[in-house]
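Marked as duplicate of an earlier ticket. Keeping the data here for the record.
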Amino acid sequence: MTYPTGNGYLKPGVLPHMWCAGCGIGTMLGAMLRSFEELGWSKTDTVVVTGIGCTGKLDDYLVTNALHTTHGRALAYATGIKAFNPRLHVVVVMGDGDGVTIGGNHFIHAARRNIDLTALVLNNLNYGMTGGQASATSPATSITSTTAYGNPEREFDICALAETAGANFVARANTWHGWELQQSITQALTRKGFSLVEVMSPCPTQFGRRNDMRQTQAMLHSLRDRSMPVDRFRALPPSERADRFPVGTLVDRDEPGFVERYAQVQQRAAARLEARPA
């Protein structure tokens, strides 16, 4: 069977993809590419940076500029790309293990710097590729390959972490609501400064089967049922928020991004040099 390659950002002949049935990475990839097309982004002016893990395979499918980096370091490489060539559109695609567990320190400082790039973090609540180990987002009490009797650790709220560290734009979506996912990605791609979209995604192969969601659709339905538009979520009393999470735009600020602030530093340096006596 011949599969269409979509809107021109995909390499020919790469479909069907390699991810497990029910995984949300393909849905996120499609939403990202439709956002590129909607914004009219050139393949030569776009750089997609990935790390290691299931999401790290995503760059293999693209004809944009791409950089496949080491585990947890995708944001560090992407920061260098954007600082060196600010005209490029830089998008970083990571999993929860890669982005905020192994790479947690880089995540914090990318948001603190408000570096002008978009981070898409696919949160499937575990290390999906390497055997289903607990990550920093695995829910407390959940079963993983390294927490066979329940997870004693508390989980990160990725969006709250980005907001506190200083990100300009923070949104959360899930792979059940595909249209809303694309809208959030498009918004993030157009904002200056550090933009984050956390994409809640099923991992039926590893996480789902260990947590009473053995059927592929069960974990997807769980994400659908647990998500709630942010305004409705914030109106709930804390006692009713258990096991729910808000989706939509959580933070939308207009603080100067790193590129803007660095340009100001360069201007001050140039002015000082010019003012020096010959």
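See parent ticket for discussion. The longest helix spans residues 258-275.
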